[in-house]
């Protein structure tokens, strides 16, 4: 059975203003009380949907009748319309924006590099990188901004070493990816940043074709199954996804722990709880906070609402991961709970390729930081911490800390 | 209990190897599921069932 759409549901755009730093906008919570699959107006006037219920979101992400191809999607963001001319310039090999079977072909070339076992082998090197950055913080002395000293450089250096991207070039790719992920960046500037990042990776791939190393990009080159432009496009995707996401989990996660001393103590003093703790931070913080978005390829009924072919559906992960039908006391950060099954890494064929790497980084970095500086505290009042409200990945712009 | 895995559907996310490492591993080649123990002991049932529930691609099932 499908219901008529109540009049008051129409012509409302995605609420993005948060009242509190760790909680999604209250308005979205009210929307979920109305319907877990609800009408929403996209920036171009398209009448699509927003999903705030866990079961509905999981079903959609697992359903091949929902596509991730950008030419089928509408954008909810006024500054980010989807323009045909940009689609034509999209890098080849950018497989997150493809459906199977094209998506499968690219992803399968990488999955062997990101297995649980391979990530386990990286742990000693990650621990070393974490310790180096903690040493540097200690030498500098308080106060420091935790974002450029800890949260950003650790995942950035790890993904660079894995891919074979020279870390010395970080200024260029960190600037480009920050521009790209800022939803307030004018579209032409975002496209220019994407073009620059692609040009950088393409030059790197061409250089590596003659001087191969023991790294992921060199491996893709010697496998000989892809063009150098495809490899550059895949590298671009992995480079952005590999550092912005974990960086924001580390920054925002530390902020959340500093605001909740009892939970901080669990993370610091109970090594047996670190696996659950990381899953709970993923659930509670849901840094991919403005998506993902899918387009229905045919009419599909979800939670009693008929989503028509061609309509866009935005899955609000912060709401989905706080669905009281799925998680008890969902608004409470409780590192002891089993948050397994959260959709913080997505679900379905696009579920995060690098999730085992992200887990390894977080399981090492959070306890190491808190043990090195047992007196870690905010160096500014919490309300002065600048939040990344308009960024595709949520987090903190800066996190001044002392110890 | 018998474990069924469809490596063709698998997307190599590694949730099974993470959740039930005594039952599942991943191929070094393409990261897809490798069943280490196709008929695991009852003591591993809870972990195996959780791995089936968490699998993002629906590649796993258990026949009782």
UniProtKB/TrEMBL annotation, chain A:
Note whether Transport occurs among the keywords.
Answer: no
Any one Gene Ontology molecular-function term assigned to this protein's record: iron ion binding
User: Pfam families under this entry?
Assistant: p450 (PF00067)
Instruction: Tell me where the transmembrane regions lie.
Output: none
Q: Which domain of life is it from?
A: Bacteria
Q: Which residues form a coiled coil?
A: none
What family does this belong to?
A: Belongs to the cytochrome P450 family.
Q: What is this protein called?
A: Cytochrome P450
Species: Sphaerimonospora thailandensis
Automatic annotation (TrEMBL), chain B:
Keyword Secreted present in the record's keywords: the answer is no
Question: Do the record's keywords include Electron transport?
Answer: yes
Write out the entry's keywords from A to Z. Answer: 3Fe-4S, Electron transport, Iron, Iron-sulfur, Metal-binding, Transport
- A single MF term (Gene Ontology): iron ion binding
- Which InterPro entries does this chain map to? 3Fe4S_ferredoxin, Fe-S_cluster_ET
Give the source's domain of life in one word.
Answer: Bacteria
The record's annotation in Pfam families points to: Fer4_13
Kindly list the cofactors needed.
[3Fe-4S] cluster
Function text: Ferredoxins are iron-sulfur proteins that transfer electrons in a wide variety of metabolic reactions.
Q: Do you know which PANTHER family this protein is assigned to?
A: FERREDOXIN
Kindly provide the name given to this protein in its UniProt entry: Ferredoxin
Species = Sphaerimonospora thailandensis
């Amino acid at each position: 059975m499908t219901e008529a759409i109540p009049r008051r549901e129409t012509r409302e755009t995605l609420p993005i203003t948060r009242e509190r730093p760790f909680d999604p906008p209250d308005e979205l919570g009210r929307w979920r009380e109305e319907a877990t699959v609800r009408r929403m107006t996209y920036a171009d006037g398209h009448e699509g949907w927003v999903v705030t219920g866990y079961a509905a979101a999981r079903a959609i992400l697992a359903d091949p009748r929902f596509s991730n191809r950008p030419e089928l999607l509408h954008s909810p963001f006024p500054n980010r319309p989807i323009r045909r001319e940009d689609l034509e310039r999209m890098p080849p090999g950018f497989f997150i924006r493809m459906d199977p079977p094209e998506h499968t072909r690219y992803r399968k070339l990488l999955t062997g590099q990101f297995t649980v076992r391979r990530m386990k082998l990286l742990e000693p090197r990650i621990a070393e990188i974490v310790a180096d950055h903690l040493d540097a913080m200690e030498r500098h002395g308080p106060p420091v901004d935790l974002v450029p000293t800890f949260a950003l450089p650790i995942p950035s250096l790890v993904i660079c070493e894995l891919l074979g991207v020279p870390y010395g070039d970080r200024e260029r790719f960190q600037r480009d990816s920050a521009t790209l992920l800022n939803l307030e960046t004018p579209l032409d500037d975002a496209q220019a940043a994407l073009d620059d990042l692609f040009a950088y990776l393409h030059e790197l791939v061409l250089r590596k074709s003659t001087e191969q190393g023991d790294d992921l990009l060199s491996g893709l080159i010697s496998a000989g199954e892809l063009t150098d432009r495809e490899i550059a496009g895949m590298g671009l995707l992995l480079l952005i996804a590999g550092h912005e996401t974990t960086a924001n989990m580390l920054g925002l996660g530390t902020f959340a722990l500093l605001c909740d001393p009892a939970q901080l103590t669990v993370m610091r003093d109970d090594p047996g709880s670190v696996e659950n703790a990381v899953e709970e931070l993923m659930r509670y913080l849901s840094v991919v906070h403005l998506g993902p978005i899918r387009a229905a390829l045919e009419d599909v009924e979800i939670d009693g609402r008929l989503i028509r072919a061609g309509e866009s559906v935005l899955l609000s992960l912060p709401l989905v991961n706080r669905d009281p039908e799925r998680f008890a006391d969902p608004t409470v950060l409780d590192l002891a709970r089993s948050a397994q099954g959260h959709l913080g890494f997505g679900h379905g064929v696009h579920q995060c390729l690098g999730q085992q790497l992200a887990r390894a980084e977080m399981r090492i970095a959070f306890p190491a930081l808190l043990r090195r500086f047992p007196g870690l505290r905010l160096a500014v009042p919490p309300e002065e911490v600048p939040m990344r409200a308009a960024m595709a990945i949520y987090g903190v712009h800066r996190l001044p800390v002392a110890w | 209990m018998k474990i069924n895995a469809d490596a063709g559907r698998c997307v190599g996310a590694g949730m099974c190897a993470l959740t039930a490492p005594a039952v599942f591993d991943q191929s070094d080649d393409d990261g897809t599921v490798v069943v280490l123990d196709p008929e695991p002991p009852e003591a591993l049932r809870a972990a195996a069932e959780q791995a089936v529930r968490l699998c993002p691609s629906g590649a796993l099932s258990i026949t009782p």
